[in-house]
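Input (structure):
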């Protein structure tokens, strides 16, 4: 049967199909990766050995600044498991624990101390004075601890050791790790922070008097308006403040009016005032006598009671031993100036009875002159 497209033999058809395929391949070229070669390398020269990476190995390094160094003799100590906040490791050191480069800790159990009392003294001797802070950490694990602790306290004072007492291994471990944790802590963490507002400072000032609380301080300031007015107020006016009784008013007046210097009879009178007793003055003096005494002692300024207007009223004051000695010296010097040279000095006191010493007569005469009204 003849073909619809005419008489075409097979050879001609194959040639046409071949030419069409080649033309299509030339217009759309594709790159294919060659298959992996399994042939051996043909590089000239001897073959190089494969590169072998080094295996990391553990290198022992000394303890860093964040570790506590523990003496090897402390192996098995029950406090070691309780050091959890910081790292620790064994090292060749003289103390039992080296918390910081300047803090050395010696550990001692009272049970062991009773069996070997010479142990701690040998350790202290070996420690020397190489560290700034030297701590003796004592584990109190026996009921009979009064006498050993007294002895260890004296030893600490002699050898500049800070004695710390722990009643359990857990507490001892916390002490050791706390020394490390607070190594670089500033002193401001335990320093008192001053209050900024004025009322808090006023409360702190007023409550320094024994028995006066913050409520009393607020009532005092509300009553008088200022600290100056409260200081200058009389005892009767202070007693009118709600919550202030006779004792508080007396203590407040004594605190703001007494001298800063306390010694001898003055201290006894102050304690008598605080105890509610009536003080016994050494010398009753009037205002005129006080002014004369101030002038002779070189004290410049208004006398007490001048602002209150009590010029002629008798007021009881106390003269301490130093003021008496100064006054007697001045009296003696004044007598020397009055007596002309070459004349025998008259006896200072002829009315003194029962005294065998001239010095005692002079003292009694000077005191008698002070007590005489002028």
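Output (sequence):
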């Amino acid at each position: 049967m003849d073909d619809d497209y005419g008489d075409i033999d097979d050879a001609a058809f194959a040639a046409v199909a071949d030419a069409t395929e080649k033309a299509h391949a030339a217009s759309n070229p594709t790159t294919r990766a060659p298959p992996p070669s399994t042939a051996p390398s043909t590089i000239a020269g001897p073959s190089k050995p494969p590169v072998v990476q080094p295996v990391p190995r553990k290198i022992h390094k000394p303890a860093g600044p964040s570790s506590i160094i523990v003496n090897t003799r402390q192996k098995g100590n029950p406090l070691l498991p309780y050091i959890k906040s910081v790292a620790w490791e064994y090292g060749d050191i003289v103390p039992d624990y080296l918390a910081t480069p300047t803090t050395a800790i010696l550990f001692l159990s009272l049970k062991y101390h009773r069996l070997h009392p010479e142990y701690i003294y040998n350790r202290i001797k070996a420690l020397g004075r190489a560290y700034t802070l030297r701590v003796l950490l004592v584990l109190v694990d026996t009921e009979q601890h009064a006498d050993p602790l007294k002895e260890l306290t004296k030893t600490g004072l002699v050898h500049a050791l800070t004695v710390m007492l722990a009643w359990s291994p857990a507490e001892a471990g916390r002490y050791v790790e706390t020394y490390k944790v607070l190594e670089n802590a500033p002193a401001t963490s335990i320093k008192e922070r001053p209050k900024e507002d004025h009322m808090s400072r006023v409360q702190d000032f007023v409550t320094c008097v024994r028995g006066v609380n913050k409520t009393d301080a607020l009532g005092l300031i509300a009553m008088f308006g200022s600290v100056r007015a409260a200081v200058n107020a009389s005892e009767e006016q202070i007693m009118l403040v709600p919550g202030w009784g006779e004792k508080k008013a007396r203590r407040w007046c004594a605190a703001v009016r007494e001298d800063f210097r306390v010694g001898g009879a003055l201290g006894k009178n102050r304690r008598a005032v605080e105890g509610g007793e009536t003080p016994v003055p050494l010398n009753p003096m009037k205002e005129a006598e006080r002014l004369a005494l101030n002038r002779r002692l070189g004290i410049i300024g208004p006398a007490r009671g001048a602002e209150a207007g009590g010029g002629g009223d008798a007021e009881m004051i106390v003269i301490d031993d130093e003021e008496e000695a100064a006054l007697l010296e001045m009296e003696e010097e004044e007598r020397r100036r009055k007596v002309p040279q070459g004349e025998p000095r008259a006896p200072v006191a002829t009315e003194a009875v029962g005294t065998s010493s001239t010095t005692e007569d002079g003292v009694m005469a000077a005191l008698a002159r002070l007590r005489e009204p002028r």
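Notes: The chain is about 40% helix and 10% strand. The beta strands are 67-71, 87-91, 97-100, 103-109, 133-139, 162-166, 283-285, 315-317.
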